[in-house]
């Protein structure tokens, strides 16, 4: 089975748990995801199936959009609601304008320290394993970009927000740092990923829907149409003869629709056979081959 499936990840499961479950449901060994979600989080988890796993390299830097809730009054060791409280709990009421002023400081290209409970490795050991043993975790800051961070509303000690961020951004670190800047502590109390690049929440299916629909055409009903993948790459059509050359990894001449360096090559309306890279003019070499 080959395709891209947009799953609505339920709370309480790791991204690896979801992949394992989908492998069993679809009886497909080759399943991967395009960006980890924490167990507490829900929402868009794009899965690549079969030969489509080769597309993962084009999504490593894809921007992501989230909606969620920050709770003020105390921090936690994991920076989210699943962790243990750090320090005393305080009864706080943060005005909306004050929360928005605090959030603005984190918009732009910034240096962010990943949470101690994260998969970042220290001398080959995941940081969360050290943190669980109460060992010191010192992670180096990494450069990220927060393209937008909007505080939508504040109710008592909780703020609703929407954010668009670069790949590799930890939303719970932002929540933690906002609480620190306000002097009251805070943690991420809820999170839903609403978009990963072109993949949107309204395109998602649930594990239950996938399992119930196994008697039907899974690729046709649940997988995204291949022409909707990587929308910034132009689509070009290949003749049967050219498609055969591409399957053998040979350079070919393709219709020049734009000056794009990379193009999606189709044989028919739905059969995405390759992503090709321009050599010169109309001459392209298949960067990855998706056809058998």
What do you see in this structure?
- With 292 residues, this protein is α+β, with helices and mostly antiparallel strands.
- The protein folds into 3 domains: 3-59 and 198-224, Pseudouridine synthase; 64-196, Pseudouridine synthase (2-Layer Sandwich), CATH 3.30.2350; 228-289, PUA domain (Archaeosine Trna-guanine Transglycosylase, Chain: A, domain 4), CATH 2.30.130.
- 20% of the residues lie in helices and 35% in strands.
- It has helices at residues 15-26, 96-104, 127-132, 171-182, 207-212, 218-222, 240-247, and strands at residues 3-9, 31-33, 42-49, 64-72, 75-76, 85-86, 108-112, 121-122, 125-126, 142-155, 158-165, 186-196, 199-200, 235-237, 252-253, 262-266, 272-280, 283-289.
- The strands form 4 sheets. Strands 1, 2, 3, 4, 7, 10, 11, 12 and 13 form a 9-stranded mixed sheet that branches. Strands 14-16-17-18-15 form a 5-stranded mixed sheet, with helices on one face. A two-stranded antiparallel ribbon has the order 5-6.
- A hairpin with an 8-residue loop joins strand 5 (75-76) and strand 6.
- The radius of gyration is 22 Å and the shape is elongated.
